[in-house]
Design goal:
The structure holds 3 protein chains of 3 kinds. By secondary structure, chain B is mainly alpha-helical. Chain B contains 11 helices and 2 strands. A two-stranded antiparallel ribbon of chain B has the order 1-2. In chain C, 71% of the residues lie in helices and 0% in strands. The chains are: A alpha/beta, B mainly alpha, C mainly alpha. Chain A binds chain B through residues 11, 14, 17-20, 23-24, 26, 28-31, 35, 60-61, 100, 110, 112-113, 116-117, 140, 143-146, 154, 157, 161, 195-198, 226-229, and chain B through 1-9, 11-21, 23-24.
Chain lengths: 295, 329, 300
Amino acid sequence: MEQQEQQEQKVTAKLQVPETTATPAVAPATAGSEVFETKNVSIYYGSFRAVTDVSLAIYENQITAFIGPSGCGKTTVLRTLNRMNDLIPSARVEGDVHYRGASLYSKSVSPTAVRRRIGMVFQKPNPFPKSIYENVAYGPRINGIRGKSRLDEIVERSLRQAALWDEVKDRMGKSGLGLSGGQAQRLCIARTLAVEPDVVLMDEPCSALDPIATGRIEDLMQEIKSRYTIVIVTHNMQQATRVSDRTAFFSVLRDERPGASDTRTGVLVEYGATQQIFEDPHDSRTQAYVTGRMG
Amino acid sequence: MSITAKADPAIPAGSAGPLSKRRPFGDRGFQILALSAGLLVLVILVLIAVSMTQQSTTWFSTEGWSGVFSTDWDPAHNKFGAVPFIYGTLITAAIAIVIAYPVSVGIALLLTEVVPRRFARPIVYVIDLLAVVPSVVWGLWGILVLAPWLQTIYQDIASGLTGVPVLSTFFGGQGVSGASFFTAGLILAVMITPIVTSLSREVIATVPVIDREGAYALGATRWEMIQGAVWPHSQAGIVGAVLLGLGRAMGETIAAALVIGSSPTITTHLFSTGYSMPAVIANQFGEATVGVFRAALIGMGVLLFILTIIINLSARAIVGRSVRRARGA
Amino acid sequence: MMAVASEQPASGVDLREPGGWRRTKNQIATVGMWIAFAVMLVPLGFVLVTVIAKGASAISWQFLTNSTIPVNVLPVTYGGVGPAVIGTLEITGFAALIAIPLGVLGGVYINEYGGNHVLARVINFMADVMTGVPSIIMGLFIFTIWVLHFGYSGLAGSFALACLMLPIVIRSTYEMLRLVPDSLREASYALGATKARVTVTVVLPAAIGGIVSGALLAVARAAGETAPLIFTIFVTQTLNSNLFSGANTALSTLIFQNATQPYTGAQDRAWGSALTLIAIAFILMIAARLVTARFSRYSQ
């Protein structure tokens, strides 16, 4: 109990002040420990309730997929995990979101510190209009890392992890905008990995890419799984079955009144091991979706 | 933070150098800096109004409103009526607009409807060239080259028009001079053409392609299409553009100061010498060392400021509304 | 659309160009537009030709650098306009130093921090209006606020020019920042950058081409201005390289003074200065074009 409190305090402390602390003396976490836990989380844009009552847990070194039809709040929930919804003025989160035991939305938590530990890859690749090197070095630089040799090392390692090194090592000075779609997305992944995050959130990372590029990124996810916790939003059910360990199925909240159309509020329908979700779904809506009858 | 199997624990996420403690403050500091820079605009505008009005109070207090708005300007006898200059400002600006309006709209239509994309660039460059010539160079050329040349032309026109009813009130008269209301208006027209043209282009560009195509699909010629599709949409916006040009023409100082003739006259004869507010301020400020004279000149500056602010406000509002309506609707 | 020749196709359908009055009207309109363009070309050509012809004969290395501006009577071969050249460069340069950083910051405020706040929209609108305030007002303003207390100086002239440039740089910076896609900002935030960092390390570099180009054009405009200076620098004829104290001179004010002089020497000096001024403005304009062409990533 005390250990957990200690851990909680240390993590909270780190989330408050975006500065280096001594080597973290946190109790070693075992694979399978909780990274995120949400309890009854609802997200509002102004008075519009976008997502209601989401309770789930994300486990370490696993790939968790959020699937479901369009507009059911998958991306909204994802962005809540790294406080990106803060950028939208009318957005509001109710309920508890815990990251490694510490409350993510408490007043003393700094969003910038959160985002350094929880990275994000976006749907459409968005490399900076800088050189490939500078794209990857950007994150470490703003974290205060100077020294060319350190940066070179980080850049190379990140690009290798993103399976892009061999393709760009001879043109590191060229603009990141000149890459193909798949390469650009891997560059964005390398950029995210360069800050050594704890978690990588991916918002439909392959939806703008062709099947071959998609395949490479899926392989990439499997390779880095052992080092990072990954949460991916995807429209592609086959992708979810291919890469993920656990799957959360979202849908829109049904309005039970007779003759009413469905609301636009997202709700978590079912969450479990991927195999179970797809082969033996408990909820009828899940079954309808995964067998292709809906969405 | 995940502990197991990290590639390089020497770089924990969020590690930062000595700047980190200052970072939150730096973030706030930057925002405050940016806000201050923005506020500077409002501060300057207010200060202009306040400080200049302050300096001109002796003009109003000595002359009273009737003196200020009298037609009598005679500094040697302490007479500081502003009407001749207000008149001159309005007249020259009106001449400028009458000339610049069709020319600018014509060029704008040329660029948007007639000329293919590739050739539009050089024409735009030429217009930019027009804009880059400084006001004082226009004035120099105006007084040393244009005015003498126009003098003879004016004389011919004026003598030719003696006795003709309407036209001679404007273009007739005895005291015909190269440096006159009309010449000033001419040069002002040339100077405001670039901005009226570019703003008109902006407005015309917001006309939806569907409307254009609709007109063509009915078998309209290009001119008919312009009348039917382009004109109704852009009319309001072009009014705004013209208003903006008017504001510029009223405030354009140096070119006017050099070619207007520098003599406070109120007459309908456009070829006569005259004076305008910015011109008299520029020309006489050196001699107005103290007292009511200087207060009068600064006071006219205040009048000019208020006038141009009002005109610009209206112009921007009109252009903004018309562009927004076309785009956002 | 090719007019079918006067042969009628056998079916009797008439596909010829609409004839008569409609076609003539159209042609007149088109010709009218070209005439408008020509009308504008005439004075432009006239002025450029005159300035180049009369100015070129006056310009020489001595003209540009000699530090004695001779009395008006003397012909252009005596002395030169060095003080005016230095004055223009110094005064405009210092004005740029003040106005450009402030203008960029102002544009940053409006686009990055202002959002939909009333204050930001008001500032944006008033900056727009301020670009239309006549330059003579800026000169009078600095006169009342500064010169009356601290005397004439090149510095006062710089302040007046800076007031002129500020809203121009604010507006052009704002327009450029608007074009930077939001996805870049998001990517930067997601890496844990603070807002100031995002703006300085990603947004500004992305827009830098357009911002620099807009700034150069503002400088070109300021370099040619006369009215703001005549109330602030109290034109002298001698070289005064101390920007901060004492009266000063500039090319534009020199032209203004000499334009009304009856002496050929003075007038020639004016033409030479005019050509120099136009050259400076022209070079800045070309530089702005080049910067836009090479460095602007996001253009309209």
